[in-house]
Specification:
- The chain is α/β, with parallel strands linked by helices and 224 residues long.
- 30% of the residues lie in helices and 25% in strands.
- It has one domain: Nucleoside phosphorylase domain (Rossmann fold, 3-Layer(aba) Sandwich).
- The chain has helices at 45-56, 121-129, 139-149, 183-190, 194-221, and strands at 12-13, 25-31, 34-40, 64-72, 82-89, 94-96, 107-113, 132-136, 153-161.
- The strands form two sheets. It has a five-stranded mixed barrel. Strands 1-2-3 form a three-stranded antiparallel β-sheet.
- Strand 7 (107-113), helix 2 (121-129) and strand 8 form a beta-alpha-beta unit.
- Helix 1 (45-56) runs parallel beside helix 3.
- The longest helix has 28 residues, at 194-221.
- It is globular, with a radius of gyration of 17 Å.
Length: 224
């Protein structure tokens, strides 16, 4: 997750684990006078949970925040809207999620955490019928580990695709076991239908950059 808030520009590398136990990316920084350890470890609840365990072995947090991109389930959500979860729901669990104090605009509601990319408007509609306003892939894993450790948990996400969007690219087919999307698979399949799939990839990149900056600014303004 890339943050664009000015307070996070001084983030420095922080090594967590070694070999197969290392997380993909980590940075140590400060925000509002507090130490923050930012960790990324690929898509999916299992890898997110592993990242929290690895980070907690070298850094003692007062609270845990699951953050990143999400898909909108509520048609009222626009691109780059920030969502603060009131709870996180997975296939078999519901986890509480704490509110934040901020003057920045945001939406609050239930975030659905699933094991795949919600690619179609129809699937998003089914998730919306269950009460969710946004969908993502990691928060349930983080919430479960935070609960097990007795740590306060927050979930803050930013929208990169809308409730009515159906993706032309099959990102689930390109998701590897290591939690990363195989770029070559995505590009190879995109070239099979270039008029629909290549412009979508460009749009997603543009949306992601914009959403990351909005999310960084939101963090710079909020209190936990």
């Amino acid at each position: 997750m890339e943050f664009c808030g000015a307070e996070l520009h001084s983030a420095r590398r922080f090594i967590i684990g070694a070999g197969a136990g290392a997380v993909d990316w980590a940075r140590l920084t400060q925000l509002g006078g507090h130490d923050l350890l930012l960790v990324a470890n690929g898509a999916g609840a299992r890898r997110a949970a592993t990242a929290l365990d690895a980070a907690a072995a070298v850094f003692q947090p007062d609270a845990v925040v699951s953050t990143g991109f999400c898909g909108a389930l509520d048609p009222a959500l626009a691109l780059a809207d920030v969502v603060v979860a009131t709870s996180v729901v997975s296939a078999d669990r519901r986890f509480g999620s704490l509110p934040v104090s901020t003057a920045s605009a945001h939406h609050s509601g239930v975030v659905c955490s699933i094991d795949r990319v919600a690619q179609t408007a129809e699937e998003k509609g089914r998730l919306r019928a269950g009460g969710g306003i946004a969908v993502e892939m990691e928060a349930a894993g983080v919430a479960a580990r935070a609960e097990a450790r007795g740590l306060p948990f927050y979930c803050i996400r930013v929208v990169t695709d809308l409730a009515g969007d159906t993706m032309a690219n099959d990102f689930n087919a390109a998701l590897r076991a290591d939690g990363h999307f195989d770029t070559m698979v995505i590009l190879r399949e995109a070239l099979r239908r270039p008029l629909a799939r290549l412009p979508e990839l460009c749009r997603l990149r543009q949306r992601s950059v914009r959403a990351a900056c909005v999310l960084g600014d939101f963090f710079a303004d909020c209190r936990f």
